[in-house]
Amino acid sequence: QVQLVESGGGLVQAGGSLRLSCAASGSIFSINYMGWYRQAPGKQRELVANINSGGSTNYADSVKGRFTISRDNAKNTVYLQMMRLKPEDTAVYYCNLYQFGDWGKGDYWGQGTQVTVSS
Questions:
Q1: Mapping DSSP to helix (H, G, I), strand (E, B) and coil, where does residue 87 land?
Q2: Which residues contact 27 (CB under 8 A, 6 or more apart)?
Q3: Average model confidence (pLDDT) for the chain?
Q4: 17 backbone φψ class: left, alpha, beta (φ>0; ψ -120 to 50)
Q5: Which residues on adjacent β-strands are paired with residue 117?
Q6: pLDDT at position 101, please?
């Protein structure tokens, strides 16, 4: 199985920055996507950004130019650098690992970390 441990959430003022980290352990295969989703109260969970094992990235329009996703494959860790934060970025942020191969596929989630941006 796979375990995801997130860190780095917290309270920040609008315009500030935070960096989230997510370390994966367990049966990690070479072909995978790691990413961040978020869920605000009363809203559906949405993709923030993801990055595949080759380094290709994908961002939600609402965070383009403000957030940067990166990964360290040797450490099976993904990072989300968040800058120029806005109150509407307030949400629980979840780390996700999706991997697939001849053996099948797996979709794993972290426990979530709260990000609160005050105005």
A1: helix
A2: 1, 2
A3: 95
A4: beta
A5: 12
A6: 86
pLDDT tens digits for 50-91? Answer: 999 999 999 999 999 999 999 999 999 999 999 999 999 999
pLDDT at 23: 97
**111 torsion bin: left (phi>0), alpha (psi -120 to 50), beta (else):** alpha
Which DSSP category does 45 fall into? Answer: -
Residue with tokens 């997130």: 6
Distance, first Cα to last Cα, the chain: 40
- Residue 97: C-alpha distances to residues 51, 84, 118 (Å): 10, 26, 29
CA–CA separation, 63 vs 49, rounded Å?
A: 8
Amino acid at 2: V
Phi, psi of 54 (to 5 degrees): -90, -5
Asked whether residue 107 carries a pLDDT value surpassing 90, the answer given is: yes
The pair phi, psi for residue 39, each rounded to 5°, is -140, 115
Question: Residue 90 CB: number of other CB atoms within 10 A?
Answer: 19
Pull the structure tokens for residue 15. 């315009």
Which residue in 66, 109, 93 sits closest to 10, CA to CA?
Answer: 93
